[in-house]
Amino acid sequence: MEALLIALIAGIGAGGLYAMLGSGIVIAFRGSGVINFGHGAVAGYTAYSFDELRETGSLYLPWFDPIPEFGFLKTLKLNNIPVRIDIFDNVAFDNKPNLALTIFICLVMSAFLGLLMHFLVFRPLRNSPILGKVIGSIGVFLYLSSMIVVNFGGQNRGDEGFSGFNNTAEPVRNFLGLGGTIPRSNFYLFGAAILMAVIIWGLYRFTKFGIATRAAEENEKGAALLGYSPQFLAGANWVLASITAGIAGILFLHKTQPAQIALFVVGGLGAALFGNLTSIPGATLGGLFLGMIAGGGVELTTNDWWPEILPGEGVRNFMPLLLIIVVLYLRGDKLPIRGSISIGRQPRAPSTNNVTIGVIGAVGIALMLSNIFVSKWESILTTTLIAIVFMYSLTVLVGFLGQISLVQWSISGLAAYTMIRLMADGTKIRDTDFALNTGWGWPTILAFFGAIVVAVICGLLIGLPALRIRGVQLAVVTIAAVIAIENLLLRNPPLMGDGSVSVNPTPKPSWFGQYVGGFNPDTARNDYWKFSLFLIITAALLGIAVANLRRGQIGRRFLAIRANERAASAAGINVANMKLLGFGISSGIAAIAGCLLAYKLPGLQETQFEVFGGLALLAFVYLGGITTIWGAIVGGCLMAGGLLPEFLGVHFESIDKGLINAVGAIGLIVNAKVTNGEGIALLQTDLVKNTLTALRRPPDDTANTSNDEEAVV
Amino acid sequence: MTNILEAKDLTVTFGGLNACDHVDLEVPTGKFVGLIGPNGAGKTTFIDAITGYVPTSAGNAIFDGSDIGELKPHERAQSGLVRTFQSLELFEDLSVRDNLLVAAYPTKWYTFLADMFHLSSKNSEIEERVDWALEIMGLSDASDSMPTDLSHGRRKLVGVARALAAKPKLILLDEPAAGLDTSESQILGGHLREFLNHDMSVFLIDHDMGLVLSVCDYIYVLDFGKIIAAGTPAEIRESSAVKAAYLGEQAGEIQAQEGERMRTQQQGQEAEK
Question: What is the C-alpha to C-alpha distance for residues A636 and A621, in angstroms, rounded to an integer?
């Protein structure tokens, strides 16, 4: 009992971070109506900057030099976009720069990040539909996470923190006579969160800026008529939100690795929802509460009676999802939809008519790549194809049905792990395997479909909240589900076998007596041609099926629901059933992609299915075009590890993987603004169509001249 | 004669205010019934209550012989009680024809499989019905257009055509003529009586007194949520209660002023919601 109490109290440490992040998310929401999924990434980037500045004296600006340093470009000395600024000289272990100055510089930079987000992302997207805004904030998340990798290497840091936030300080022993120890810094984090909440609350309550923000929150047009520019207020709130994120990142640096801080946004979202997205004290309380129940939950799992099948880390990461679901269930439709001047229209989703011809073309290209460049391209080709298959699942769910689910990639992971568990028979599969996986020893095909069934059931369960909530709230639930599934279901030896906590070895798949795994024992590479053929066939058939779905009655119903749920039910559509159907179909396709990924690799790691991976896939299918299968195909080719970057990589010798994601994130945001998510594929089709129309029907006044030219020719 | 729709004692309450106050109303099978009343009288609320979009606090709605109070909106639509909306509530990402097809085709649990393999066959009866609905609303030429490419009035007609395509037993038209230009109004007005020849009854709400009086068999008048008069068009034309409430004659001037004040309040409350 004492141990549980101590764990609950100690939870105020992590709770402090959730509270600070939650408050920042509330500030940004009040200022602009956007729920920022990238808020944690702002904290993470600032935390890295702080550590880097203290250790090396250099500040890395949040961008990269896009001009590659090679060949004649190098001699032209064009690559002079400043990225690194050396601020402090002679930094050494015993000569660290001034702490206050360092913090100040880092907070100026996070304020600058806030300005950039406002002017480059959310202001341009202010009239976009909800999907566009969600994508914009995902773009921020991906971009900053990628810049962390590009500028700081994403390596672990050993920062001990400073003064009260130092992790080596003597812990508090026997707190309130309960025995046990609590890290001293937990109390400082708690105090910092409370102090921050009081200051922000006072700012909103008593200053003119705060009152104007609240006015604009109620009614943007009204505030504008009173002489307050909603966009100025939004910008100011973005700056404020980013500064709070920066503070949170710097204060929390000693507790975790800065790369992890970005993921704490999930807890921050839970805290913000607890505060109804509008209340700073509410968000702070919610964050502290979340930290405490997470700490207490983990403590419970150490008891003997606790079922082994629910691991501690899983319970910890399940808590944000639980909090979010409970809050959304209780509040239901009463969560505020912030007043804004206009809501833009959804991306068009035209039905694809000549799908067979297109798919045959794509198959032809894929076959050429697999045959001609056997050794070199096969692995890249299969990565691309698996991504394409996965992206179809988003085409159906996000593109057709308009349900913003961020969890589909976790469904893929769940299917892959389930399949491995069903197939495994306890024998060592490869000499290199670390773990012997035990399982049920099912035949390949049976395990494949068994995994799909499990994934579909899980997908339907996740779809249940979608019957009550929609839009960005669903995105929040599903991003919380990502970390819950990863830690509760995948990293779970009793459930998924011993391999699930390290590298989970895939049993060799054979369909109808043919080995179709990607790993080729002859070359010890992932380039087995039968696997490529298997994938090409699967991707082609699924592509045709998804395109057919759009043309048919169900596709029309999906689009009807996406456009107008009220009118859809008046047309006799059972909206709830159709949404579940969409989640089911999408999860089935995602499951196939997950199983195929397991076929490709000799072993899987659950980190492949964490938040970043799923968001990157969503980013690239959105870039390609979320509403058509061509978008999925383009998106698969563009993504990191896909065909196009690899081709370029060969030409430019080496391209940083982080850079591809960063460029993709920029493309994503630009795409959200320019094509509204219709993407490169549809833009391309439009261009071709317009050009053809222009060629066929020349305008009357130019008709004569063109005739003359023909005569001359 | 049987009634396709009966509202008995139907009451809808919004925060203490009765938007529909013990409304008794009947639509005989195969007849054309109208409901008129000033702004804010509760006409649209009545349709919303009948079709399941707002909860009723008392009373029953009986459609085609059975109480539909427990049914969800889509179930009511599937049973043949189809409505249109006062505002444009179209599926903007679907072509005009697809808008109609959505409502016209039923789906089964396995339809998605048939769709994926492109096995769903066209049903000639349904396709003909869709063609008819497009034609009667003068939309045959716009079949493949997107709704956003049409004029406001024609988009409203798409909404009516979509309801017709659903093969309703009773079609509830919520101000279909509002926002239509003269020619579009004529298309609508000229064809409304034709609906009756296709096995359906019609229930019409509109502001256009001329339209309602010319097409309806029977008319109810609603004011402040209460039915204040009912009768044939000729009777309604002569009713002094209707004149007082609806037209603001001198006899009802004081009442009308009072009514205006209350209506403003009511609208203010609705706007707050």
Answer: 7
